[in-house]
Design brief:
- The protein is globular and about 60 Å long.
- The protein has one domain (about 25-290).
- With about 290 residues, the protein is mainly α.
- The longest helix has about 30 residues, at about 45-75.
- It is built from ten helices and no strands.
- Helix 7 packs antiparallel against helix 8 (about 195-220).
């Protein structure tokens, strides 16, 4: 197993470019952030580091279970035409654990919103108030969410590089993993968890429809089968995706981290270097994910 240029890895598309230098840089960035996060968490406490490693182990187990179980579900639900292409079943299985992650995270995030009566959503100025205004149980749940997110994204990045077949968006998604891990880490270690929480909720919740759309398409449950499930999911996504990514993301997440002195933002202080970098990463996510 090499860090770049793995020609033996399965490819689901012949159009995947061979860019070993880009592959190496992205892989080293992931590894660097992994080591850095481990060291920072160890300084906070061994129990926090153990919690992250436990989250990573649980994620790996979840992925393995999905890859073992969902092919049987996919085979039972697929049309005969869809089964003629073996990669459809493999891609259905790959997407299944993404659906489990996004649905599970969204459920947990809604629970956190309920715990603070949705205040972080309805009034984004509260995202920057002193932490002593938040209950200890709420902050504990928020920390666990972040550790779970880091565990999922590190395992996802390693799986994307070393396990899953390469799709034609391989480098775009790899760059997305780098940007996401960078944002989650910056948010966790700089006290921006509440702003980051809103970003995570918007991305996790809007990805559920995308996951279901892809899975129904891989199963062949479209107009050719007479069920029109793929088309229905596509229509729903045409509404849900722009609302989440093109309206709520800038109006809630990005606006909350822009200075009030600019006349539009909710951030009560002047913009510092790290927060400017975080805003640049958010802008990168918008470009990659719209």
């Amino acid at each position: 197993m090499v860090l770049f240029g793995n020609g033996k890895k399965k490819r689901d598309s012949k159009s995947v470019p061979n860019l070993p230098t880009v592959d190496l840089v992205l892989t080293l960035l992931i590894l660097g952030m992994f080591v850095g996060d481990m060291l920072l968490l160890a300084r906070i406490g061994s129990n926090v580091l153990s919690e992250l490693l436990t989250m990573m182990l649980c994620t790996a187990v979840c992925i393995s279970c999905c890859k073992l179980g969902f092919p049987h579900i996919g085979r039972a639900l697929s049309t005969s035409d869809a089964l003629k292409m073996p990669r459809n079943l493999r891609k259905f299985s790959d997407q299944s654990w993404q659906l489990m992650v996004h649905a599970g995270m969204t459920w947990y995030e809604i629970g956190i919103f309920r715990e603070n009566s949705g205040e972080w959503w309805t009034d984004t100025t509260t995202l920057w108030r002193p932490l002593q205004h938040e209950s200890e149980s709420l902050l504990t749940d928020l920390r666990r969410l972040y550790l779970a997110q880091l565990g999922v994204w590190f395992i996802t990045a390693f799986s994307h590089k070393f396990v899953e077949a390469k799709h034609n968006d391989y480098y775009v998604m790899y760059g997305h993993h780098v940007a996401t891990i960078g944002l989650v880490s910056l948010s966790l270690f700089n006290g921006w968890e509440r702003v980051g929480f809103v970003v995570l909720f918007l991305h996790d919740s809007s990805d559920i429809v995308v996951d279901i759309l892809k899975m129904t398409n891989y199963l062949g449950l479209d107009s050719n089968s007479g069920l029109f499930l793929a088309e229905a999911c596509f229509a729903i996504n045409l509404v849900s995706w722009p609302i989440a990514r093109m309206w709520y993301f800038p109006m809630k997440a990005m606006r909350s981290s822009l200075p009030q002195s600019w006349g539009w933002g909710d951030y009560p202080y002047e913009l510092e270097g790290l927060l400017s970098f975080a805003n640049a990463c958010r802008g990168l996510l918008v470009v990659l994910l719209i």
